[in-house]
Amino acid sequence: MAEIIRMPKMSDTMEEGVIAAWLKKVGDEVKPGDILAEVETDKATMELESYDEGVLLHIGVQEKDAVPVNGVIAIIGEKGENITDLLKEIEGGGSPSSKKEDKKEEVSSEETKEEAPKEKPEAAPKPAKTEDVDISGIHATVITMPKMSDTMTEGTISSWLKKVGDEIKSGDILAEVETDKATMELESYEDGTLLYIGVEAGDSVEIDGVIAIIGEKGADFEKLLQAQKSKNTASEAPSKEVASEEKTAEKPAEPKAKESTKDAPVSEVAQPSSENGRIKASPLAKKMASDKGIDISLVKGSGEAGRIVMRDIETFDPASIKKPAAPAAAATSQGAAPVAIGQESFREEKVSQMRKTIAKRLAESKFTAPHFYLTMEINMDKAIEARKSMNEISPVKISFNDMVIKAAAASLRQHPKVNTSWLGDKIRYNDHIHIGMAVAVEEGLLVPVIRFADSKSLSQISNEAKSLGGKAKNKELQPKDWEGNTFTISNLGMFGIDEFTAIVNPPDACIMAIGGIKETAIVKDGQIKIGNLMKVTLSCDHRVVDGAVGSAFLQTFKSLLEDPVRILI
């Protein structure tokens, strides 16, 4: 008897899984313990093991597609077993089980009533069968929007690096996708021809939405689109299904017209060592070129597919290259119309995914969590002397921000009630200390995390902070770099800000705002002296942290920075 394989819950926070790769195909013999597929969860990529023996009769989720926990993934049964009825029930939105089958047998008098409304929905399984045929016969694969971060709900196609008709190889970058965290590259895992693009550059698409189709040249991808559409609308009313299928049938024609208009501008902006206007270079090469003041578009790449690598920057001779940028600059200056005096003007830009998420999360935090603020002045005279002494022997340059992170981590160890999270019906007390470090980037704000900060030395914190800060500004952060903070520090002192308040960064209970070190007159032992003061403001979620708890934390933090030797104990 056929057994349905469902998506298991592989972590405590998992709501859905993405099939990263199928390791078995329809018709393969499967034994208990065999690995069916690799599943990408919200935590990691894990192996999906079979507990049944038989033949893989059906695969219900394509690679790179997401399926909710307990959703149907595949069917295993005896070779040649008829699973048509089982598929119809699954695609019709039913939950196939022995109990439901028993109920259908018991309620025989209502069979005619049940069959009547199901006559039209039966049209849904037909496209589903076509989808199976299309995948095996047409040899084309639907590319959908992957979930690139834990909070991502949709992605914006920043730019397409390939166009319809291009040959694609596994590992090629199809497009740049702007998520709520960063701009990331969408890599192809398929070989073939780019047959269809479903989302224009600048437009957004929800997770699992169709982005493109890759397959054999000349393959009939329209049937594949119809199958995908019918799969998504199988549970809708018959009238809606008909309308959806009509729109789906017309949909493939639209992008072709748009693609033809897009091809011309792409070729116009093409530069050396680039493809479709995008400079193909490694992150290290980009950083080296930026540090050396080299226009990377003039460098000829020697890496795979013309990719610019580190050695190309090291051996680059600007004198041997004639810059082609002058015509572009001239064209820009000619195209810019002078603005008349007194003329009103403005420009509008689409809100980036990062800015959308910042707005949503901080608005929720500000208007949901009852904030209160505690401000304290800290004498940094000894910290300045200690930093100067440390940097004489430290392998990396230690900053005041590094000292703040270390002192905060040590203070959290003494005041664990500050290192907490509000979970609605319970409070989480974190035993580990992960410090989030707010970093300003062009599109907004990122918070990379320094993990186990209390157990790291100042030089280790400094090295990690510099590395994460560079990754944030170069949009190279990975999900593991920004997840898991238990406390956050926002430092605007380097911008000349004396004092400010910050909004709590969920799920933290507190965030500390660090102002600049300012030379000012202070009273010490009854005498006025010149000292270096730094103001810090602790923003607290009053649902979790009370004023006395926050004040005690700040007193410890102050004592550690005013006598930095204590940080090292």
From TrEMBL:
Pfam families, A to Z: 2-oxoacid_dh, Biotin_lipoyl, E3_binding
CC annotations in GO: pyruvate dehydrogenase complex
Record has Transferase as a keyword: yes
Keyword Acyltransferase: yes
Record field: catalytic activity: N(6)-[(R)-dihydrolipoyl]-L-lysyl-[protein] + acetyl-CoA = N(6)-[(R)-S(8)-acetyldihydrolipoyl]-L-lysyl-[protein] + CoA
GO BP terms in the entry: pyruvate decarboxylation to acetyl-CoA
Location of region: Disordered: 88-137, 229-284
CDD domains listed in its UniProt record: lipoyl_domain
Function per UniProt: The pyruvate dehydrogenase complex catalyzes the overall conversion of pyruvate to acetyl-CoA and CO(2). It contains multiple copies of three enzymatic components: pyruvate dehydrogenase (E1), dihydrolipoamide acetyltransferase (E2) and lipoamide dehydrogenase (E3).
Protein name per Swiss-Prot or TrEMBL: Acetyltransferase component of pyruvate dehydrogenase complex
Species whose genome carries this gene: Rhodonellum psychrophilum GCM71 = DSM 17998
